[in-house]
Each structure stands twice: as C-alpha cells, then as structure tokens.
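thread from #wetlab-drylab

HS: before we spend reagent money on co-crystallization trials with phosphoenolpyruvate, can we at least see a predicted complex? here's what I'd submit
DV: go for it
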Amino acid sequence: MIVFLDSHISQSNLDELIRFLKSHGIVYEEIQHQESHFLYLSAGISELQTEDIERFPGVDQVTNSVDEHPAVSSLKDSFSIKINNRVISKKHFFLIAGPCTIESEEQLDKIAISLKQSGINFLRGGTFKLRTSPYSFAGLGINGVEILANVATRHKMISITEVTEISQIEYVSSKIDILQVGTRNMLNYPLLQELGKINNPIILKRGMSSSIHEWLLAAEYIVKAGNPNVILCERGIRTFENYTRNTLDISAISAVKNLCNLPIIVDPSHSTGRADMIKSVSWAAIAGGADGLIVETHYDPTEAICDAPQHIDIDLLKQIVKPLPNLLKLWNKQQS
Ligand code: PEP
Ligand code: MN
C-alpha cells in the first residue's frame, strides 16, 4: 500500500499518521524527493483498508498498488537538471561521445576538440575500468578524473565517467558532471544507495543479464535515496547470439517509456561491439524513441587501448548526427 501525502502536510499531521501506523505494527518507509512525498507500507497491512488511512488530514491518496518502484513511477515527465548553468531536459537529445578509456590528456583533448566542432557537448571517458581480464588495462584511475575534468572545462563540455566503488563517489562527483554505473555494477545496491545521496545525474546501465524490472528496481534504489536524476542506458544483454558482443534490446526503450518517465539512452557500442553496425543501430534507437546515445568515439579507433573494434571515428559520428534533427522531428510528430 502506498500513502501519497500532500506536499504541504504539517509535521503534526504526519506524526499523528505515523503514530497510528506504529500502533498497528505496520512497517513503513517514508520517501521524499523533489517531486513527491509518500509512505510505502510493506508489512502488517493485511487487515488495513485504504479508508483507515484516507481519513487522516494531509493524506492525498492511498493506493493498494503493487508497484515495486513507486519512487521511479512517481517521477513526472519533467526531467530537468542544471549542469554548469545549462539546463538539460528530455527535450535535449543526450548525444554523448568519447573514448572507452582515457589514455592521456593529449588523447582526450584531441577527441574533445573534434567532438565540440561537430556540435557535441557531452564528453565520456572511462578511468576506473572493470575489465573482464585482470591483465587488461584498467584505466588511469584518479589521474583520469583530473584529465577529464580539465578537458571538459577547457572545451565547455559536460563530463561523464563511471564510478566503481563507494569510495570514489565524493571526489568524482565534485569534479565530474554525470556519473555512470556500468553493467557489472547495476546490482551493487550499496553503490546505488550512495549515488542516491548526491545530485549529479547518474547514467544507470542495464545489467547484462538483468530484466527490465530488475533494472527499474536498481533505479529505485537511487531515486528512493534522494536522487531523481537517473538516466537509464540500454547497452545490450547476453543472449545465445554471438555475431554481436551483446544483443541490443531495442524493445526496452518502449517498455521503459510505458513504465516510467525516466529518460533512456542507448549504447550502440557495447551492445554491438562492432563499428560497422553503429550507424544503423543508432538510427534504429532514435527511431525507437531513445532520448540519447552514448557512442565510443576516437580520432583513430585502431589506436584505442580498450574496445578498439567498436570505436567509430569522428567522420562517422558526424554522419550519424546529421539527420538527427529530422529523425527527432519525425518522432515528436508521431507522438503528438
Ligand atoms: C563503458 O561504458 O565504459 C562500459 C564499460 O560499459 P558497460 O558497463 O555497459 O560494459
Ligand atoms: Mn568500452
């Protein structure tokens, strides 16, 4: 049962309601974020009728809902975040590009310059890399954070990098605009909870073997803890198919849009693992209603230390971006 409260409920009315719940042995949790304030009653409610709660002043609505991610479901379609004095909303297309891994300041700077010249404002670059093989290059760590922050500031771009441990969050969130949770950490609930305590937007990648429901529950951990700025990222799931690195679940875009108002972006790079498929898969994602793309891009893909076969060069990225305004116009027209 979910008890939605008036945004202006007085403390004394709330105390009275909570006294009632406690006296009936009802287990509840209070959730409050920018958009809403509600109590999630999880146990001790078998005898309870919605009317028993509705009579309390300051209670807006009581539902017998079985919604397991009420904080995510209660978010309105008004995703809007202020980054570096710029307001980013779902009306903007999140076009994110950059290398898999930051290798040096020169490398990232060179990539950033050409991205910026192509009108791209979001710069990605990994520095805490979770590699499948313990012998693979695992990134520059904290030095990479400095490099990304410097390069993004120099070119007035919005920076994105992955955090892999709770201990990184405080420092990285002070230097980098958007934090990413990788596919391997979607189920790392303590990490998600800590990311709920900051305000930076979080790109939450779908676990490679996770259902859409599990993915939204992971988002719930972040939103419930106080950070509504979650951007979901479909990056492909594991299937029997091995022509591609993973299988892009294109239907996840539509499913997510049916289930909540969080923005959803698509990662054509990790889903296909193949540079020759990035263009068509990106366009398919846009046609399917994605709110953005995150694409591994390099001035010379063959030089990338990590994930070289899936990097595209800047010229190909420009070809992908060119018809974007028309594709988006078409999509918006279909919706109205
Ligand atoms: C990445 O985007 O750098 C990355 C490692 O992606 P994923 O977690 O989806 O594999
Ligand atoms: Mn990569």
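DV: The pocket of manganese (II) ion (ligand 2) is lined by residues 100, 270, 296, 306-307 (CB under 6 Å).
HS: ok that's useful, forwarding to the group
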